[in-house]
Amino acid sequence: MTLEATGIHKRLSGRDVLSGVDLRCGPSEVAVVMGENGAGKSTLLRVVVGLLEPDRGAVTLSGEAVHGAAVAARRRLGYAPDATEALPDLQVAELCALVRALKQAPPLDGAWRAWIERLGAAAFYRQRLSGLSFGQRKRALLLAALVGDPWLLVIDEPTNGLDAEGARTVLELIEQRRAEGKATLLTTNDAAFAAAIGGHVRRLNGGRLSEE
Ligand SMILES: Nc1ncnc2c1ncn2[C@@H]1O[C@H](COP(=O)(O)OP(=O)(O)OP(=O)(O)O)[C@@H](O)[C@H]1O
């Protein structure tokens, strides 16, 4: 399987945020997008996962368009946003059940349940998102993104708000996914974290991606 974004243009608030972005991510690859605040990193991820329609360009997973794709196609990707205010009244368990229902994914199995422990989410699994700390909500959203064991995991600022142990767990997750032949796309402004991943680092600047 391969993620391919070609010629992505997106204009927001009268500004060309993305002006011809090309991005490819294949099996076992980790694509890291860095860039200044407001560079358009989150916008790019939202386009890649199909939440935001590009003005021009296309995003495909193994040749199949992500935008308007059937549930079966969208099940192949998981997305952990950096905005954690959504769905405050849901418990973490309910959020994961909702994602499972939307993706029509198989029952949450032992491999997925192991991440409840590994992400330290067991202690707040039955709590509402509104009652959690920022870092706990980040962990909850990551857990929800792993529902359905997606081939492509898209994470916006994974280490933002996480403690050192949480950041190590994210590195382990990425390493495990690499070993399993899965792809990961993430943004970060954490240079040490980007170096620790050892992925393919690109910089988003002026609406375009360039090699680091
Ligand atoms: N829904 C929206 N409506 C209008 N403008 C938006 C919207 N989302 C983002 N923008 C604008 O697009 C630009 C890029 O924002 P984006 O959040 O993608 O940047 P970023 O690189 O992720 O920044 P940060 O590092 O601060 O998270 C900003 O100028 C922002 O104001």
UniProtKB/TrEMBL annotation:
InterPro entries per UniProt: AAA+_ATPase, ABC_transporter-like_ATP-bd, ABC_transporter-like_CS, ABC_transporter_ATP-binding, P-loop_NTPase
Entry's Gene Ontology molecular function annotations: ATP binding
Keyword Nucleotide-binding: yes
Domain ABC transporter: 3-212
Keyword ATP-binding part of the UniProt annotation: yes
Origin superkingdom: Bacteria
CDD domains given in the database record: ABC_DR_subfamily_A
Keywords, in A-Z order: ATP-binding, Nodulation, Nucleotide-binding, Transport
Family: Belongs to the ABC transporter superfamily.
UniProt-recorded name of the protein: ABC transporter ATP-binding protein
Native organism: Sorangium atrum
